[in-house]
Fold:
Amino acid sequence: LAAVAKPGRHLRTRTALRDSDGRAVATPRGTSILNGGPELVRDGRLHVTPAADGMVQPGNPSFSYGWVHKRNPRTLAGVDAAGRTVLVAADGRSTGALGLSIPESAAVAKSLGLRDAMNLDGGGSTTMVTGTDVINYPSDATGERPVGDALLVLPDRH
Structure:
């Protein structure tokens, strides 16, 4: 994103939602969709269900171990009791930052007072930027990844 979203530059975006067969899916005006998972906290309670969230693959236990139980960099988003959005970037894969497992991510979200929270991404994609500054330590040796998606928090322009 940093390669094309220079300060002051106008960006045009488009959104298309498709089903598993590639057919367009109509969405009502005002619909918001965010890719992520698994869910971590629901209604103030820990809610980690790896099997229901597709994180357990029969015949491939290493997938579940690597994705659910192993500590990795993580990106979390949630809402607290006051309705405030909270974003978390947990660094990992270094001697100074071990990362979080999915159950540990849920515990962190709950300890921050989040009523609802989910895992967004992880690994080398976990990067948090304020303004133009990367404020965490991405695990990739090259730093910030040229990832094609981002969650933007922008000021209200009204």
The longest helix spans residues 102-111. The longest strand covers residues 114-122. The beta strands are 39-42, 45-46, 74-80, 85-90, 114-122, 129-130, 133-134. The helical segments are 61-69, 102-111.
